[in-house]
Design goal:
heterodimer; A: alpha+beta; RNA Polymerase Alpha Subunit, Chain A, domain 2; 28% strand; B: alpha+beta; Dna-directed Rna Polymerase Ii 140kd Polypeptide, Chain: B, domain 3; 6 domains; 5-stranded antiparallel beta sheet; 23% strand
Chain lengths: 349, 1166
């Protein structure tokens, strides 16, 4: 049994993560010194197993809009819900054990505040496992506040009309500032109301993860690809006449290849590493033809150990938290496995 | 610009409007008078009744002109949208034609929605929406008991055109009959028709066959001709007229005339004796044979013309054609080809049907009077003599009131109950329900054309053939496969049907005279003084006029206008005439007054052989013809409307530039006279919606036409104001990224029925075998393909009470309600809750109905009614096995014209239930290229393959779907959709837009390349399970997917145990009855072949009608034991009983046989 851990130790990799870019709702990072299975595990976990909150139960009191109850409920469910930890103000779960707390990455982790409803002792739902939202819009009342020229238009009920009873939990109206500035609506549209119509409902948001339902998926995009290793025979490229260099650049779709210096136009570089592997063969074939030695001037191959990730958040969970929660989830799973293996080993011994 | 959508049903509307304005009054004019004679005490009285007018009002409710009723209300209340109809009759006595007018109500006539008598007529979009209709309401249908009914367009033989036919069965009609005949379907001014068939007899004579009240009259042609023109003998020229003048004909001409040597001096009287028995009711009882003969000639011979001389000419033309046909100088006319057909329009059949029903009414009234006259002679004659009008009015009132309901039931059932058959080949299948399953299906109901019910049972397939003559008129793509294939076709998008007899008739009244003047000035020799001949009834013409006409016939072609023989002209002159007329008929010269829809068919003289059609110049101006626009070649390209008969005489090139043949072939180029406007004109509405259909294998486009009609979409925007039995709605409709020009022209985006989905063509999990498809679970959870089914059920308590008559003993009045009347509130007002619940069905409201939005589970009460004055309740349960939500509840008022039911306003209710239908495994989806598949698994997003951009497909289909089906259009749509999504615009997928030198693949490939994708649309894809790059690049693109209405939840059928048939003890069949699925002979064979007999035993015995029985072992009989075991004490023999298991039916069989004194014994061995 002991040799088991020794071998693992010797072969253990020390993966590294390098963040390439981090914006409001998207990030890109590189995972090095690992393999495709680990990278894929991270991708799958971020999509399917990061715990988020979403509306799960809707009680209608009044719905005279033209959209049926179940469709409105479905739309409400898809609105991302954000949990914002406020230091000093947010009351955290007392029952979180130290181990669990260690597993949870940050103060912002929603699981330090909420439990899964299925794990909660309460009857139905309570403040520790759910958050209640209320929505009450009456066309005839809200229309008083809109500008005169819009009076005949139907009123769009959006996510801003949702009122949360917990100040730390609220719906996300836009994924980014840029979207907020370009949008014509003040939030995510739910239903349109015409004259005399009214909608009144309350919703219960609960914890869940993407493999239960897509509404709990925190990201709209999570993808990785192997990092390409690229090498150019710079001398050979330089030796080519300019028009042939242009042909090389044009062999790929726009933006994949380019010149290092637009004015100089002597050395070709890869502008879009993401796509270069698709066109490697084209470039190689072409440069081989152009080369006097009949030798390709370009080599690119997919790395088996380094991967570039791109993650885009829907706004409910900050994009870096998505990744951290994902990593924690893997860690937790591996810990569980380790414990289970140890138990089995102990039983056998 | 008139929207193309609105033009979809315009021929139905115009036809009905024409019926209201013109055909109905013509029908009144054409209606036969009915006469009756009374033997009075002093004098003989002749009473004559004739219809003079029919008036139709606007739809109203309850005979109150103030309460108008709208189509929307009729649909919701399940009543008929109809307007009161009144008929006026003229009453004559003793030869005095007009003793007064009687006006009686003739019931309610169903009114076509959006016609001139509809309240919606002339409303704009906002008005239609305010009337709770669709903003693009088509109209063109009737509402009968809440159902939308369309009168089917039926292909019938072209009117007023003699057609040569050859039928072997004709030989069996009698001695000398041959298979040759010429038939002509003559149309009266009220659009009713009467077919004459001229048979050729091998002895040279000819017989005219006319059907009167479903009875065939066979009259020698010479008798008819003689009757029309008594001094025929003197007209040596006339023999020329009827034969083709070649020596071979001489013999037959001889016999033709010798045959009639037996004719009496008065041919009219002879004719009269032949048909007198058929017209007894219409004419005075003492009328002589001459009168009958005249009556017959006027009403049944060549009814499309009025004058005797014109009738002669028609018969002469027919016999000429028959002679040349018999002598193989012209070919047979193909009755199955569209070029010899027209359509039976709704207005035409209605006017003919109303006329017949009115005539029946008169006949019944006359019969009634005759009975009166017989029974109570003195009294009735006294009565009549004094006040003829009240008497007739009373009798008419007794019969005329039901005409409206007869029309209603005709439209409701599509069954024609007629004494004459209306010159049609079928009596059923005239009406169809316009299902609003989705807009596409709805539209195609108005565009469909049926060949006739008669042909559906025909064994031969020749009628189903797609003939070249149908080019441009009937869509070659849009016909169902299976039983109605080729019989039910659809008219192409640009084709319309002429509905008014002449578009220009209003402007220039005498356009016919103008036309004849033009013809004469161009060199036509007129038949006779034409100005008298056409139109006016001039009775028996003096026949001397015709001598001049047929002189120079041998090389002349005859010139016909709507079956009226105008004259004759040589071939070159005819060519010139048609050239000139063709240029005058286009819109630019409309001021001259030639009808733009005038069909000009110059059938050239191409030599006299059995392969050439009978030559002539035929002009047609009458309604019910198909016409389509083509470009007229000339200095300026004018749009000309051409008909199918005309088309076969023209040279039409497929493209505007004409035929582009190689230069060395230039001598062979046919000089075309016309060009198609667009290559897509041959397609129907639905066929033109398939993008890139020119890339697909043709049957796939046919499948798409069928599947487009079965798709869940947006059938209506007024769901709440409709009470359709079943409606399907897609909750996530999208505008297709790739669609055809006609899609926009038809404004079908208002009723979108599909979703743009990312489709990867890859064999991924094995769940995509055999046309199954994988859907991304997350896409599904975000709403992909979600739909709703609306079902409306009608609760009629009156009918319910009737049905429950047995248990209740008598029909008692039922009322909606839910109060438990056993529990009575105490006098002091405090409720006594101990007695039981307040409501019988606690889930329902006080009115006995659920509340809107309420969830209804299987078996839950849906409505509750109580028997008046007692505490018996009836609860109607939700019968489906699915959850539903109450969408709407309506109380339906009493029916119109039924005053005595006024009190029971709340005895009918309709409940609309909403069934959410999210896609489940087994539901059917399809692309627009005949590629259908069922959902096999919802695959989690994280396990789906992903592209480098992070995109996961919504749908995965198997690559094996393509090689054998060759739906290249779908591949191109996929590329085009991908390019559309990345460029941010909609792409045009109109067929025939790309050519060899401008390939679709290159067009979209270069766009994909510019957007950073690979040229052919494939992408490197990583496996979602391993994260490794797949070895092959995967074709990923965006395809518009439709969800079809076939859903597992409507079809799933499963049972362990359940109801059994009482007689055989075997499981019942039928999904509704929770029955089983038959394991038939072939299934049995396959199980036997596999050798799995135990399974077979389980299926056929244990799960079916396994029955424990006991059998006598020791006795020799081995009989299966009867109910009581036999008493064994008497005999020395010891009875042993063995228990066996047999199918119950075997025991039943044994009992049945025992009834016939046959015993079955079984051998039993341990």
């Amino acid at each position: 049994m002991s040799c088991y851990s020794v071998a693992a130790d010797q072969r253990a990799r020390r993966p590294e993560v390098e963040v390439l870019s981090l914006e409001e709702n998207q990030m890109s990072f590189e995972v090095k010194k690992t393999d495709a299975s680990m990278a894929n595990a991270l991708r799958r976990v971020i999509i399917a197993e990061v715990v988020t909150m979403a509306i799960d139960l809707v009680t209608f009191e009044e719905n005279t809009s033209c959209i049926d109850d179940e469709i409105i409920a479905h739309r409400l469910g898809l609105i991302p819900i954000k949990y914002a930890f406020k230091p000093g103000k947010t009351k955290l779960r007392e029952d979180v054990s130290n181990d669990e707390a260690a597993a949870m990455s940050s103060e912002r982790d929603i699981q330090r505040r909420f439990r899964f409803t299925r794990d909660c002792d309460c009857d139905g739902y309570c403040d520790w496992c759910a958050c209640t939202f209320k929505l009450h819009v009456k066309y005839d009342e809200v229309i008083k506040n809109v500008p005169e020229h819009e009076k005949n238009q139907p009123y769009t009920v959006t996510s801003i009309n949702l009122e949360s009873d917990d100040p730390d939990v609220f719906p996300v109206h836009f994924v980014s500032e840029r979207e907020r500035n370009t949008s014509s609506e003040p939030g995510i549209a739910i239903v349109k109301l015409a004259k005399g119509q009214e909608i009144k409902l309350s919703c219960i948001a609960k914890l869940g993860c993407g493999k239960e339902h897509a509404k709990w998926t925190p990201v709209s995009k999570c993808v990785f690809r192997p990092k390409p290793t690229i090498s150019w025979d710079d001398n050979a490229v330089r030796a080519l006449p300019p028009n042939l260099r242009n042909i090389i650049v044009d062999v790929c779709p726009a933006g994949v290849l380019g010149y290092e210096d637009e004015r100089d136009r002597t050395s070709i570089v890869v502008k879009n590493e993401a796509a270069i592997l698709d066109f490697t063969k084209d470039i190689q074939d072409l440069t081989k033809q152009l080369s006097p030695q009949n030798k390709p001037m370009f080599h690119a191959s997919a790395s088996t150990t380094d991967f570039v990730f791109e993650v885009e958040s829907l706004g409910g969970v900050p994009v870096d938290d998505c990744v951290l929660c994902g990593l924690n989830e893997i860690k937790r799973k591996l810990t569980n496995l380790q414990v289970a293996v140890a138990e089995v080993a102990a039983e056998q011994a | 610009m008139v929207r193309l959508m609105q033009s979809a049903a315009v021929h139905h509307l115009h036809s009905f409007n024409q019926f209201l304005q013109h055909d109905l009054s013509s029908a009144v004019d054409c209606a036969l008078p009915h006469e009756c004679a009374f033997d009075g005490c002093h004098e003989r009285l002749q009473v004559m009744l004739q219809m003079t007018a029919i008036a139709i009002d606007y739809p109203i409710l309850n005979k109150d002109p103030q309460t108008i009723i709208t189509p929307r209300e009729c649909r919701e209340r399940k009543i008929t949208y109809s307007a009161p109809m009144t008929a006026s009759f003229k009453c004559g006595m003793n030869g005095i034609d007009d003793r007064g007018t009687i006006t009686r109500t003739a019931g309610y006539l169903p009114i076509m929605v959006l016609s001139n008598r509809c309240h919606l007529s002339g409303l704009d979009e906002a008005g239609l929406v305010a009337a709770r209709e669709e903003c693009d309401e088509l109209g063109g249908y009737f509402i009968i008991n809440g159902l939308e009914k369309v009168l089917r367009l039926i292909q019938v033989p072209m009117r007023n055109m003699p057609m040569a036919i050859q039928r072997p069965v004709y030989r069996g009609r009698g001695a000398f009959y041959t298979q040759y005949a010429v038939t002509m379907r003559c149309a009266r001014s009220d659009q009713s028709t009467c077919t004459m068939t001229l048979h050729y007899l091998s002895n040279g004579s000819m017989r005219l066959r006319v059907s009167v009240r479903k009875q065939d009259l066979m009259i020698p042609l010479v008798v008819v001709l003689n009757a029309l023109m008594p001094d025929l003998y003197d007209q040596g020229n006339f023999s020329h007229a009827i034969s083709t003048g070649t020596p071979r004909d001489e013999g037959s001409k001889q016999s033709f005339f010798t045959n009639q040597s037996s004719t009496k001096a008065n041919p009219l009287a002879l004719l009269g004796t032949m048909c007198a028995s058929l017209f007894r009711q219409n004419l005075p009882e003492d009328a002589d044979d001459d009168v009958f003969g005249l009556f017959f000639l006027e009403r049944y011979i060549a009814v499309h013309v009025n004058s005797w001389s014109a009738k002669q000419d028609v018969l002469a033309l027919m016999s000429r054609k028959l002679h040349s046909f018999v002598h193989a100088k012209c070919c047979e006319d193909n009755m199955d080809s569209v070029s010899h057909q027209e359509l039976l329009m709704p207005g035409h059949i209605l006017s003919a049907y109303i006329r017949e029903k009115m005539e029946d009414t008169l006949g019944q009234s006359i019969a009634h009077m005759r009975r009166d006259a017989k029974n109570d002679l003195t009294h009735s004659s006294l009565n009549i003599h004094q006040n003829i009008l009240p008497y007739c009015s009373k009798i008419l009132g007794r019969y005329v009131g039901v005409v409206g309901s007869k029309i209603s039931s005709f439209i409701a059932s599509g069954n024609l109950i007629s004494s004459s058959g209306l010159d049609l080949q079928q009596t059923t299948g005239f009406a169809i329900v316009a299902e609003r399953l989705n807009k596409w299906r709805y539209l195609s109901h108005f565009r469909s054309v049926h060949r006739g019910q008669f042909f559906t049972t025909m064994k031969t397939t020749s009628v189903r053939k797609l003939l070249p003559e149908a080019w441009g008129f009937l869509c070659p793509v849009h016909t169902p496969d299976g039983a109605p294939c080729g019989l039910l076709s659809h008219i192409s998008a640009k084709t319309h049907v002429v509905c008014n007899s002449s578009n220009m008739a209003a402007n220039t009244k005498n356009w016919r005279i103008l036309l004849i003047d033009i013809l004469i000035s161009l060199g036509m020799l007129p038949t006779r003084t034409l100005s008298l001949g056409y139109g006016a009834k001039n009775g028996r013409a003096n026949s001397t006029g015709c001598t001049t006409s047929w002189k120079c016939m041998s090389d002349h072609l005859h010139v016909c206008l709507d079956g009226f023989v105008l004259g004759s002209a040589p071939d070159e002159v005819c060519a010139n005439i048609s050239w000139v007329l063709r240029r005058l008929k286009v819109k630019a010269f409309s001021a001259i007054g030639i009808d733009t829809t005038l069909e000009i068919a110059h059938v050239k003289q191409q030599g006299l052989s059995a392969s050439c059609p009978f030559s002539g110049l035929y002009l047609f101006s009458q309604p019910a013809r198909l016409v389509r626009p083509v470009l007229q070649c000339g200095l300026t390209a004018q749009i000309e409307l051409i008909g199918p008969f005309e088309q076969s005489t023209l040279q039409i090139s497929c493209t505007k530039s004409g035929l582009s043949l190689p230069e060395d072939n230039i001598s062979t180029i046919v000089t075309e006279t016309h060009a198609e406007i667009d290559p897509t004109v041959m397609l129907s509405f639905l066929a033109s919606l398939t993008p890139f259909s020119d890339f697909n294998q043709s049957p796939r486009n046919m499948y798409q036409c069928q599947m487009g009609k079965q798709t869940m979409g947006t059938p209506s925007h007024s769901f709440y104001h409709r009470g359709d039995h079943k409606m399907y709605r897609l909750l996530t409709p999208q505008s297709p990224l790739v669609c055809t020009r006609d899609y926009h022209n038809l404004t079908l985006d208002l009723n979108a029925q599909g979703t743009n989905s990312i489709v990867a063509v890859v064999s991924y999990t094995g769940y995509d075998m055999e046309d199954a498809m994988i859907i991304n679970k997350s896409a599904f959870e975000r709403g992909f393909g979600h739909g709703t089914v609306y079902k409306t059920l009608l609760v009629d308590l009156t009918a319910e009470a009737e049905r429950r008559k047995g248990p209740l003993g008598k029909t008692s009045l039922l009322c909606f309600g839910n109060k438990n009347t056993v529990m009575k509130p105490a006098n002091n007002g405090a409720k006594n809750t101990a007695d039981g619940p307040e409501y019988v069905a606690p889930m329902l409201g006080e009115d006995g109905l659920p509340s809107v939005g309420q969830k209804i589970g299987p078996g839950d009460p849906l409505w509750c009614a109580f028997v008046e004055n007692c505490n018996e309740h009836i609860i109607g349960a939700h019968k489906d096995t699915e959850n539903a939500y109450v969408d709407a509840i309506r109380f339906l008022g009493h029916l119109p014209c039924n005053e005595n039911r006024k009190d029971i306003t709340q005895h009918r209710a309709s409940i609309t239930l909403r069934y959410p239908r999210r896609p489940v495994i087994g539901d059917k989806f399809s692309s627009r290229h005949g590629q259908k598949g069922v959902l096999s698994v919802l695959w989690p997003e994280c396990d789906m393959p992903f592209c480098e951009s992070g995109l996961t497909p919504d749908i995965i289909i198997n690559p094996h779907a393509f090689p054998s089906r060759m739906t290249i259009g779908m591949l191109i749509e996929s590329m085009a959709g991908k390019s559309a999504a990345s460029c941010g615009r909609f792409h045009d997928g109109t067929p025939f837009a790309f050519q060899e030198h401008r390939k679709a693949v290159d067009f979209f490939g270069s766009q994909l390349c510019a957007a950073g994708y690979e040229y052919f649309g494939s992408e490197p894809v990583y496996s979602g399970l391993s994260g490794l790059l797949m070895r092959m690049e995967i074709f990923v693109g965006i395809v518009y997917y439709q969800r079809l209405r076939h859903m597992v939840s409507d079809k799933s059928q499963v049972r362990g145990t359940g109801p059994v048939h009482p007689l055989t003890q075997q499981p019942v069949k039928g999904r509704k009855r929770h029955g089983g699925i038959r394991l038939g002979e072939m299934e049995r064979d396959s199980l036997l072949a596999h050798g799995i007999s135990f399974l077979l035993h389980d299926r056929l015995v244990i799960c079916s009608d396994s029955h424990p029985a006991r059998v006598f072992v020791d006795t020799r009989c081995g009989a299966v034991l009867a109910l009581h075991p036999p008493n064994s004490s008497g005999k020395g023999h010891i009875l042993t009983l063995a228990s066996i298991t047999i199918p119950y039916v075997f025991r039943y069989l044994k009992n049945e046989l025992a009834g016939m004194n046959i015993c079955i014994g079984l051998f039993y061995e341990k």
